[in-house]
Amino acid sequence: MTALSAAPDLPVKSLKHRSVMPGFGLSLGFTVFYLCLIVLIPLAGVFLKTADLGWGGIWHVVSSPRVDAALRLSFGAAAIAATLNAIFGLLVAWVFVRYDFFGKKLLDATIDLPFALPTAVAGIALTALYSGNGWVGQYLEPLGIKVAFTPLGVIVAMTFIGLPFVVRTVQPVLEEAEKELEEAAASLGATRWQTIMRVILPAILPALLTGYALSFARAVGEYGSVIFIAGNLPMKSEIAPLLIIIKLEEFDYAGATAVAATMLVISFLMLLVINLLQGWSRSRSGAKK
Asked: Is 0.85 topped by the overall pTM?
């Protein structure tokens, strides 16, 4: 019998994996507390204040022509702006990832300008640019295209502030995309359009939908950069956030929260649909692999 086998069994202490962050219970408790304090309690306050009106009062406020027009403009313009950003933001991200050219780093840095620029400054700049005597507007208005103080100006402002969300969401995914798959598709006789639709787009679709959702959410709640170029004409170019401010200034707090609650519900439903599409896209791409 060897000395090793004759040695008594020594207790072995199990080594637990130590994490830098605190345990699950403490982390979860802090997360729930923080979300309740910052997100859930303020939103619950909006709905509780709206409940003072009752269903009839809420419907009376939301169905009024002025509120209906403002909601249609806010969500319609946000959807159009997010769609434009999804298309052209993808093209911008593709150029930054796949091509090298002079001034690339400078242009790449300017994409983040709407993040750092105060929204009021952006609104004033866009108004000066697209007004009747502006650098661009003076050439558009003779063609019958009026941008400033119209719903088109609202779309322009929302597109401006939402572009970085799509570019910065899609760009990392394009950088990690496997170019070998594109080369394999080309070697098998696929056209460029087939390669884009069947190889590239499925890989970046979840990120593209995420960028769309972020751009849409930012555009719906945008205020500072829109009110300067919108003109704020009731029933024409008045956005819902401005209408909420007007109702607050009129001490119609319940009416303001009714409009805010309606925006929250519609935004939640639209983001829920986008998230479901993201999950479907991820599961479909995973099944193909």
From this structure: no
